[in-house]
Amino acid sequence: MSTETATVKHKMFLAGNWVSREKEMEVRDPQDNRLIGTVPAASEQDVLHAIHEAQDGQKIAAAMPVHERIAILHRAADWIAQRQEQYARMIAREGSKTIREARKEARRCVETLRISAEEARRINGETISFDQMPGSENRTGYFYRFPIGIIAAITPFNDPLNLVAHKVGPAIAAGNAIIVKPAPTTPLSALLLAEAFDHAGLPPKILSVVTGYTSDMGDALITHPAIRMVSFTGGLATGQMIMQKAGLKKISMELGSNSPVIVLKDADLPHAIESTVSGAFWAAGQNCLGVQRIYVEEERYAEFVKGFVSRTNQYIVGDKQAEETDMGPMITEAEATRVESWVQEAVEKGAILLTGGNRNGAYYEPTVLVNVPEDCRLAREEIFGPVVTIYSVPDLDAAIKEANNVAFGLQAGIFTKNIDHAFAAVKELDVGGVMINDSTDYRIDAMPFGGVKGSGIGREGVKFAIQEMTEPKVVCFTVAK
C-alpha cells in the first residue's frame, strides 16, 4: 500500500492474500472531493470465500500459543508506531479528522494493539467448588475461556483505524478469526492495519478486510451460520436491521448517542467550556461520544453560554492537513446537508441560533443553539455533526431528568466541585459511563466502553471485548474415593 498523493489502486486483504477485482470503488477526500484511490468492490462470493477460509483460520488461531499471539500483536503495534505519520496522513486524507486529530488516533491504535497483547496473557478461568452441593464431594474442576470462532466486524468512518483495531486486536488475542468490513468512505486505514498484521507474521486465513458496498456483498457476513459473532459500530437503524437478520449468534453493538453534559453552578467554568467545546466539535462532531446537549444550572447559564459561544467562534475551520486547523469537513456533503436541514428545522420551530449554521460543501460551521423545542429531531436524536444545544435548568435533579429523557445512553459528563452531586449523577444517569469534570468524549482504550438503551449492547475496551469474544467451558473431574 501507499499513501502518496497520486491516485493508487489498492488491493483488499482476503484471507491473507492481497487481491484486486475488476469492479472498484472510489475513495475521495471529503474536503475537496479529490480522488485518493480505488479499492476492490467485493462481491458476495468474496465474502463467502473469506468465511470459508476463516473456518480454517479459526482453527489456526485457536491453536496458536499465547506467546505467539502476543508477539504478533506487538510486532503489528511496532510497525504502526514506526510509521505513525503515514497512518495519520491516511486517516486525515480519507476521513474528516484534522492531522492533529488523526495523529492522536494513530497513537491510540498502537496502544490498543499493545493492550491486546497484554490481555492475551490474562484470559483466565477459575476453579469451581463443586462440593458446595451435597453429593458432589468427590468432584473438582474449573472453567476456562475458549475462542468463539469467526467474528464479523463492521466498522464506521469516524475512527477508521483505531475502531478497527478495537475489534481486530482482541479477536486475535482471544484466538479467533475475524472478517472486517470497513466503512465504504474510509477503507484505506483498515487496509493499512491489515498491512501491519501481514508484516507482523499473522498466519493466513485469520484476518480478512473486505472493501466495497453492502449492496454488492449481500447479508452473508451477518447471516452465515459460521459467523459466531457480529461486532458492529454505527447507527441505530443499521444496528436494528442487523439484529433482525443475524440469527442465533453473539451481537456486540455500539450505536451512538446524543451525549449530555451537566454544568452546575459550582463548576470550574473555564475548564467546563474548554472541555465541552472540544468534545462537541472533535472530528467535526462525528463522534459517538460527542457533546450534543448541555444542561447548565440557571445561576451560571448566561455566563456559560457567552463563554461557550466565544470559544466556539475561535475555532479554526479549514484544511485538514494544516497544523493550525481545529475542525475539518464532514464525511460527505450529503451529511453536511442533513445537519443543515436539522438545524433549519429547529430554528423554524423556535430555536435561537447563536453562532454557526452555515454550510459550504461538506463543511458545516461549529453551531450553537438555545431554546431548542422538544419536538424537533435535534432535541431527540443523534445529530452526528458539529452542533450543540444548551439549556438552562433549575437544579441537578432537573438536569438528570432531562439528560435521561432520550432513547440513548452512552456516556454523560458533569462539572461540579461537590462530591455528593457527582455521586448522585453517577447513580442516576442512565448511561454506560459518567465523566466527572470532563467531556463525554473522554475515553481510554483499556476501559469498558458501551451504552444502554439505543446506544448498544455489550462492551468494547480490549479486556471487555475479549470477554465478549470468548466463551466459558466447564471442566469437572469425578475423583475416585
From TrEMBL:
EC number of this enzyme: 1.2.1.97
UniProt cross-references to Gene3D superfamilies, sorted A to Z: Aldehyde Dehydrogenase, Chain A, domain 1, Aldehyde Dehydrogenase, Chain A, domain 2
Reactions mediated catalytically: (2S)-3-sulfolactaldehyde + NAD(+) + H2O = (2S)-3-sulfolactate + NADH + 2 H(+)
Alphabetized GO MF terms: lactaldehyde dehydrogenase (NAD+) activity
Protein origin, superkingdom: Bacteria
UniProt-listed SUPFAM superfamilies: ALDH-like
Sequence ranges assigned to domain Aldehyde dehydrogenase in this UniProt record: 18-475
This protein's record includes keyword Acyltransferase: no
InterPro entries cross-referenced by the UniProt entry: Ald_DH/histidinol_DH, Ald_DH_C, Ald_DH_N, Aldehyde_DH_dom, ALDH-related_metabolic_enz
Swiss-Prot/TrEMBL keywords: Oxidoreductase
CDD domains: ALDH_y4uC
UniProt record similarity statement: Belongs to the aldehyde dehydrogenase family.
The protein's role, per its UniProt record: Part of the sulfo-TAL (or sulfo-SFT) pathway, a D-sulfoquinovose degradation pathway that produces sulfolactate (SL). Catalyzes the oxidation of 3-sulfolactaldehyde (SLA) to sulfolactate (SL).
Protein name: 3-sulfolactaldehyde dehydrogenase
Organism of origin: Brevibacillus fluminis
High-level lineage: Bacteria, Bacillati, Bacillota, Bacilli, Bacillales
